[in-house]
Design brief:
The chain is mainly β. It is built from one helix and seven strands. Strands 1, 2, 3, 4, 5, 6 and 7 form a seven-stranded mixed sheet that branches.
Amino acid sequence: MKKTNTSLTADIAIIKIIEHVPYLLLIQRKNNPFSGYWAFPGGFTEETETSETSALRELTEETGITVNQLELLALLSSPERDSRGRIVSALYLYITNENLQAQSGDDAKDAKWF
């Protein structure tokens, strides 16, 4: 059996519900690959982090939003899902009724609610 080099990322689907209308937060990628494309906030998990800690850090770095807890929604592991190589992503969910404001930071060109 061939061993693969696998990287772990953490992504966050954050939804705010204001007056019964749901809004999904996406960031516009600043860097390649996929520069200019809209994506969930997230990024690579550092060697000393848990996946959830990484997700919380990336959310704050890319959007300025800080939360205390996330719910694991899915593990995305298709070998072909990323052009950079074998990358497995833990997708977390956060739903709130707070009217959170986002501002782009770190490697996000923009952050908007859709």
